Amino acid sequence: MKLLILNGPNLNMLGIREPEIYGNRTYNDLCKLIEDHAQEIGVEAEIRQSNHEGVLVDWIQEARGKFDGIVLNPAAYTHTSVALLDAVLAAGVPTVEVHISDPDQREPFRRVSYLRRACVACVKGKGFAGYPEAIDELKLRIERINS
Q1: Which end of the chain is least crowded, N or C, by CB within 10 Å?
Q2: DSSP states along 60-111
Q3: Residue range of the domain that includes 48
Q4: Is-contact 123 137, C-beta < 8 A?
Q5: 3 phi and psi, to 5 degrees?
């Protein structure tokens, strides 16, 4: 099974950006956690990050036929991007939305997710541990589809 792990804007600044919300661990720490977990459960995971909406749209579209599923942290684009919503819907690749913090417990504008309706699940507010949970959820759903 091959999964695409996509991270949106400012996640490359983990460890620097708002440590009271996101903690002190870095983006490299997150990637290592994801890689270790994927290896442990026998999943191939390709991890990418971009601050650019169009790049994320391109990667989602390119996932069709190449990846079995997507774990997507759209970051700030969660609350603004119809383009990402449309890309997920068009690609037809099972996608899990993941967030390090819980947007529903933050500012009111962060409580809106344009993407959630296109995703098979959402994991939020569990810190870095949300990524392995999202991967596990996606793997389980894909295995059910394929059985």
Answers
A1: C
A2: HHHHTTT-SEEEEE-GGGGGT-HHHHHHHHHH---EEEEESS-GGGS-GGGG
A3: 2-146
A4: yes
A5: -115, 145
Number of domain units in the chain: 1
Tens-digit pLDDT profile for residues 90-112: 999 999 999 998 988 777 777 78
**DSSP annotation of 5:** E
List strand residue ranges (DSSP E) for 63-120, in order.
Answer: 69-73, 95-99
**Angle between the N-to-C axes of helices 27-41 and 130-146, in degrees from 0 to 180, rounded to the nearest 10:** 30
Residues catalogued as catalytic: 22, 99
Q: Which of 119, 126, 131 is closest to 60 using CA atoms?
A: 119
Neighbouring-strand partners of residue 3: 45, 69
